[in-house]
Design a protein that fits this description.
194 residues; alpha/beta; TIM Barrel; three-stranded parallel β-sheet; two-stranded antiparallel ribbon; 7 helices; globular
């Protein structure tokens, strides 16, 4: 069966307690990776058992659904979140700011995808944030480019290279997750985007 599928997983899966505790503890990267591997294998098995054809890794290797990808692009720096803040939690994600020329110059999350692909017998589905997430939270003030046309041109080139890297790794189902439309319901966010 090929995408699109009738039922699909969108977004991160809830982290298993073992993984949550491991992220908060002082264990080695290797130990954390082994716990993540086990959690991903279990999540894949559950998705396959309920009949999903497109299977994700639950985004279990990520700290933030979008920042783990964006922060690895050349020219992106994570900065403190000045607001507006997410309600109901103390932990706030940093804001990606474009502080230099945007490029995709090294593999980003390709190993994560490859682990998922070898773990499932179904279609390995991977998700990266859309290019709009480079601009949304910081707004124009977070983009160092003098001309926005050049910024968007470089963003397109970076994403083309990233998408090709995923395709070369065997990814046939790559979702570009774009939550910008939902953010635009907040007047504070809209004001920040101008």
């Amino acid at each position: 069966m090929k995408p699109p599928f009738r039922a699909d997983q969108v977004g991160s899966l809830l982290r298993p307690l073992e993984l949550v505790k491991a992220k908060r503890s002082r264990i080695s990267k290797q130990q954390l990776s082994e716990i993540q591997d086990r959690a991903i294998v279990e999540a894949v098995r559950k998705q396959e058992a309920i009949g999903l054809q497109g299977v994700t890794d639950g985004e279990f290797r990520r700290d933030w659904w979008h920042l783990d990808f964006l922060s690895q692009l050349d020219g992106v720096t994570l900065k403190e979140n000045p607001g507006p803040k997410f309600g109901g939690t103390e932990e706030q994600p940093p804001i990606p700011a474009v502080t230099g020329k945007l490029r995709y110059s090294r593999p980003v999350m390709i190993d994560d995808f490859s682990f998922l692909k070898k773990t499932t017998t179904k279609t390995a589905k991977f998700t990266i944030p859309s290019p709009s997430m480079l601009h949304l939270r910081a707004g124009r003030a977070g983009i160092c480019y003098k001309e926005m046309e050049e910024f968007w041109s470089d963003a397109v080139a970076a994403y083309r290279t990233a998408i090709k890297a995923f395709a070369d790794a065997g990814c046939t189902y790559l979702q570009l997750d774009d939550v910008a439309f939902a953010y635009l319901c907040d007047p504070k966010i809209r004001a920040n985007c101008t």
